[in-house]
Amino acid sequence: MTTTTGTPRFRLGFLTHVQGRGTDLAQTYRNATELFVAADELGFDVGWVAQHHVPGSGGGLSSPWTFLAHAAARTTRIRLGTAITVLPLEDPVRLAEDIAVVDTLSGGRVEVGVGSGYSELEYAAFGRDPARKRELTTEHLSVLRTALAGEEVRTPGFRVQPAPGDFSDRIWQGVFSAPGAQHAAAGGSNLLLNRAAYGFDAPTDEIQRPWADAYLDAWDRPRRPRIGLSRFVFPAKDRRTALRHIGDDVHRAALRMAESGAFPKGLAPEEALRRFHCFHGSTEEVVAELRQEKVLPLATDLITQFNPAVLDHDTAIRALELIATEVAPALGWQPATEPALAGV
């Protein structure tokens, strides 16, 4: 990422886990669609969704490519991606078909983020062994790459249709270690880093910076390597206002994650915010904190999100506006007016 005139600008994204309050998932999906519409109008470069087969607090999105096809029809220029699709639970050829259809409908605006997931319940429901998740991710990604390259896949004479566009620089992998980052680089994938590093006491950016460095050191392709940095970013009038909207949700989420060992038990609210690496407060405070973020200087994509906070729709829209009009420009970003290209 750069902040000086004359150097390549970073792309600005937002990520939604498509969660709401209550049980009206139809309204939750409509609200998520309107986030894409608003982000499109504000000049965001990429809108991302996360796949969850098991509902979390306020729902979740089990079928991201169906949703993105709908979002494509409501938007004109914003790129559309998954962060992530749980690849071991997918048939990679069928997934390639869905991706190719959405890419065709959207005019070539698709980004594909994949990962291994973490829920043993999801693996059980799909008849997959969670002990093989890394192996399955590698196997399925190889098939997916072949299919999206328009090559024959699995049997002579079969190719995915519609014929895919060029996905050579549009496949991303979510990783949680330096070896994982090196593996992603070796395969030619772009790198996705999560909003928080679980199982560590040190700040997230201190943990993830060596992963990003390892990725760049291992990169040997002629094209520019790309790093997508997901971060919790919630600007508001001031820090007190921000905490009123996000504090309880973040604290509850940290306590839930402590049950699985991701965080220590009994975290105080402020420590929960630190563990989720939350950038919150006035726009000036958020900008100042992001300027100290250790991975951000290497990022080609800043992917903002509010999860695990579940905001009311108007508050989420207002936060997107502040990110696009005040926070990101202060960091060197400029809003796009044309479709965001894959390699920018």
Automatic annotation (TrEMBL):
Gene3D superfamilies: Luciferase-like domain (3.20.20.30). InterPro entries: Bact_Lucif_Oxidored, Luciferase-like_dom, Luciferase-like_sf. Residues 15-255 form the Luciferase-like domain. GO terms for molecular function: oxidoreductase activity, acting on paired donors, with incorporation or reduction of molecular oxygen. GO terms for cellular component: cytosol. Transmembrane segments: none annotated. It comes from the Bacteria. This is LLM class flavin-dependent oxidoreductase. It comes from Streptomyces dioscori.
